[in-house]
């Protein structure tokens, strides 16, 4: 049976780093308050003139290089902040990466987008439509944040991460295990940008300026995220035939350090097994899981054969989880490559 196998990985952050002190100065806040509430000490923001496609091209190019080539049969881009509402951003990214003519499209599942894009890429391979798929998660959330909203503007950052999937054999390192995906449209208003879509445009009412910004009901989302990711992660582990105690690394959506800690506790895993990079990049939405994987690969945390559990929760509401045996990626970084 053909399996989807991870064979390359890459990530990219915009050069502009924004420490807590820069935001605290205009938000009547402090570095200590932001760290205590979120675990974040800095994040990266795209500079003027940048778009999400620029970040996606950088991360996608690094993933293709990591995989030992520049070819792919399809490009799947998970993003909530496309360059334009129409057309999709993925075809432009594919062309700029030297992949004209391949299937390319966007996936919109907010912070769960990368897991959904992975499932889509795996499905293309299983169906025989593609042999190699570039899967990218990229977001420029700074473009939709209300600069005066302390509850959101200190949390999110911009970035992109990507993996290359190839057709492989069941059981080999890098194989993506069974997925668990789900949604609850009853919570659509908990994580949203109220204005700009067809519902608002055809309502006959003029939106308030603030409705074009991202909004989130933080307290309710916090506990829903912990509980739903725990259930979804357990389902994925069960379908893979694993036990939770077998998991070497938990890589969840980097929403908030407290969410990561509570999720590890809920699953009965030591907090030290949870891969986290939120302190230096913030919540990068669809990019958070691949960026965390890229960093953990680069610093040697992920070793060939390690059992990795991925799980995410975001707007929609949508969630998803999948298991993964970490592959040997011989790109000069981390396990499987020469020392840096």
TrEMBL record:
Gene that specifies this protein: fabH
HAMAP family (UniProt xref): FabH
Domain of life: Bacteria
Beta-ketoacyl-[acyl-carrier-protein] synthase III N-terminal domain span: 105-185
Function: Catalyzes the condensation reaction of fatty acid synthesis by the addition to an acyl acceptor of two carbons from malonyl-ACP. Catalyzes the first condensation reaction which initiates fatty acid synthesis and may therefore play a role in governing the total rate of fatty acid production. Possesses both acetoacetyl-ACP synthase and acetyl transacylase activities. Its substrate specificity determines the biosynthesis of branched-chain and/or straight-chain of fatty acids.
Region called ACP-binding, residue ranges: 254-258
NCBIfam families membership: fabH (TIGR00747), PRK09352.1 (NF006829)
Assembly notes: Homodimer.
Species assigned in the record: Actinomadura rubrisoli
Signal peptide positions (record): none
UniProt name for this protein: Beta-ketoacyl-[acyl-carrier-protein] synthase III
Lineage of origin: Bacteria, Bacillati, Actinomycetota, Actinomycetes, Streptosporangiales
Catalytic activity: malonyl-[ACP] + acetyl-CoA + H(+) = 3-oxobutanoyl-[ACP] + CO2 + CoA
Alphabetized CDD domains for the sequence: KAS_III
Top EC class, one word: transferase
SUPFAM superfamilies tied to this protein: Thiolase-like
GO molecular function: 3-oxoacyl-[acyl-carrier-protein] synthase activity; beta-ketoacyl-acyl-carrier-protein synthase III activity
EC number from the UniProt entry: 2.3.1.180
């Amino acid at each position: 049976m053909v399996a989807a196998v991870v064979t390359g990985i890459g990530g990219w952050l915009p050069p502009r780093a924004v420490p807590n002190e820069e935001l605290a100065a205009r938000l009547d806040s402090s570095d200590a308050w932001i760290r205590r509430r979120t675990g974040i000490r800095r994040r990266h923001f795209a500079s003027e003139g940048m778009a999400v496609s620029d970040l996606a091209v950088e991360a996608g190019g690094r993933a293709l290089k990591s995989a030992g080539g520049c070819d792919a049969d399809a490009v799947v881009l998970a993003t909530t902040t496309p360059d334009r509402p129409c057309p999709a951003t993925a075809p432009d990214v594919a062309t700029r990466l030297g992949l004209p003519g391949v299937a390319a499209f966007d996936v919109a599942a907010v912070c769960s987008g990368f897991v959904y894009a992975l499932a889509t890429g795996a499905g293309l391979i299983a169906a025989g439509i593609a042999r190699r798929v570039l899967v990218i998660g990229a977001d420029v959330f700074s473009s939709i944040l209300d600069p005066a909203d302390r509850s959101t503007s200190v949390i999110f950052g911009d970035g992109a991460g990507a993996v290359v999937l190839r057709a492989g054999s069941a059981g080999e390192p890098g194989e993506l295990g069974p997925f668990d995906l789900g949604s609850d449209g009853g919570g659509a208003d908990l994580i949203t940008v109220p204005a700009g879509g067809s519902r608002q445009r055809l309502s006959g009412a003029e939106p308030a300026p603030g409705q074009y910004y991202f909004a989130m009901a933080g307290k309710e989302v916090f506990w829903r995220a912990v509980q739903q990711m725990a259930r979804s992660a357990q389902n994925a582990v069960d379908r893979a035939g694993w036990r939770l105690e077998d998991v070497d690394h938990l890589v969840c959506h980097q929403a908030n350090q407290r969410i990561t800690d509570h999720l590890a506790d809920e699953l009965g895993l030591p907090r030290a097994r949870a891969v986290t990079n939120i302190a230096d990049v913030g919540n990068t939405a669809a990019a958070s899981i691949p960026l965390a994987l890229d960093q953990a690969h680069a610093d040697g945390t992920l070793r060939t054969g390690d059992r990795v559990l991925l799980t995410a929760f975001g707007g929609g509401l949508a969630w998803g989880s999948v298991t993964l045996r970490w592959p040997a990626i011989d790109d000069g970084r981390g396990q499987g490559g020469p020392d840096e």
